[in-house]
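Running log. JK asked me to keep both predictions on one page so they can be read side by side. First protein, sequence followed by its tokens:
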Amino acid sequence: MKLSSSLFFRCQLLAVVLSAVIPGASAQAQTPAATSAPPAQAGPRPEAARGRGSNNGRDPGMDAFYKLGPDSMPHEGVPKGRFEGPKTLSSEAYPGTQHTFWVYVPAQYDPARPAALMIFNDGQAFKNEPGDVQAHHVLDNLIYRREIPVMLGVFINPGRKPEQPEPTPQNWGDRDTNRPEEYNALNDKYPRVIVDELLPVLFRDFNISKDPEMHAIGGASSGGIAAFTVAWHRPEQFRKVFSFVGSFVNLGNRQGHTYPDLVLQADKKPLRIFLQDGRNDNRGGNRGGDVEPNSFDWFYQNVRLADALTKKGYDVNYTWGIGNHGQKQGGAIFPEIMRWLWRDAQKVSTERNDTVERSFRAAPTAPAAAPAARSK
């Protein structure tokens, strides 16, 4: 629309008056006010300023809003579990390798009562403190408040040869341990490590429920797909799975991106699955020469898997954030993931006079010592 010269003049005059009455108004509409110090928390930059290209790149701002909450922190008055380990598990599935693991034993563990079991792949990352998950604090808090059953937490690292370094939060072992072979392959070798090698040791040393509904496994990235593979091959032992930014992609030509097709082709298994991923998780796509152009797009493949599980009628839950490849969002929502996975795993009393049900879950009391025999 074309303005008349008189109307254009009146608009200019109004702008001059406003700038005189409200100093800086015209400039304020164009640029933010200067600050004496940078903000404490930088948010994501505008798309045009990020320079990530059309698919790749990593913007730390995309993870800026994912923070651990109170359920992931230690609290005064909450009984703290203990870690046993590190322990070493020699492997027959992968000869010449060994797995380091730690067992979290909650304060409420009673050797007379079978406990639930939660296994964490890349255990070092899930127990790291300060870290992105701090899973042991989540277990402390939720067990104490009766939001999940009493459970042992097993934090297991990928296998390595004795001369290879132990994975750390800075180096998860992709280049110098057996992690890629164990976690990214779809065969039954890593499930054998967990079910045939680790479980017998745990059953020997602790009173753990034999009910597969009381066994869960989870992980992040390649540890996420590995957790799914364990339950996929051995649902008679594991029925609950969670995955952060799972690597359901074609890493090492191991065909991880075919899981959605396998889910649709196979009979439904009795599994409950939670998937988490971010819209900026490794969006590289085709790396050249692949038949499937999206075989290296993490977010695309996680969404495909969730769709396949939903279509097949699985008990599946999922959430898609904005973040990168990492544990930031998964760690922030991990307490809710645990509540969802274990929501029906313990009997609930609705009796209003049940003082035990309405109390925090305390550590078991030691049996009273027998009175000493009197000397005659």
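And the second, directly underneath as requested:
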Amino acid sequence: MGNYIYKPLMGSLQKHGALAGLRRWSLERDDSGTIYPHRIYTDAKKNIYHSVTHILKETAPQEQKDALERWIERKGSADERDMACERGKLAHAHAEYLLKTGAKLARHNANKRGIWRMGSDELDRCPTKVTQWGLSKAAETAPRVSWSASGYARGLRSFILERVTAIHAIEFSVYDKDYGYAGTADALIDIDGKLTICDWKTSKEVRSDEMLVNYCHQLGAYNYALRKLTGIECNQALVCIARRSGKPQLKLLDSLALRSSEISFMERCMTFQEQLKELAVV
């Protein structure tokens, strides 16, 4: 459930090995409803993990839950939801293709020329110009995106070509046993030279501050688990929300804001665990 872009030259084998281990989803999905009414994941020792998005949904403020219920009850909402889901998948797939293909081309070029360099974070990088060359070549060969998602894909493509300076991992799984959650992060990349954990979103409208808070907490969850599993410390996090036209809406978290989002998500995890206890009593 994800792929790690492996660069075999130089760097910390421990961190690269740990990051490589996240390329496969090691948890087993359980939709049976026998333990909880929602989907869960379990590991080999039968520890239970809840999805990050489910925890965020269940611990959202009541007014957000009420607004969602009203929207679901609205005529045509199911079709609208399906279309939004489809365009999100198509835009994500486009971004994934660009990063995977760009990384592959850059890696081949850098290996051939022996120009990898290790950063202070013990992650290997090829020169920025090589990465950007690989991404531009990937954009030339990218499959055409359906018209329904073409504007969103175009926004993500422009951002990636302009701002990404190194590619470390794409679509990788993270989890934490202590807080009992699991999820999939979209990308670990350098944005303008800074190590960034990134999440791609799509939206017809500008996202509200309340929705952005959820996205920030989602990145806090991913970053906390990534650090525990690999020892990798991100400089920042980015929510990149592609729009139907124009530039994406960006929410950038510096290291302090990212740590605050981690703490906020842990608090929501504890609230969620209390909800599960109440559910068990009922």
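Observation for JK regarding the second prediction: DSSP finds eight helices and eleven strands in the chain.
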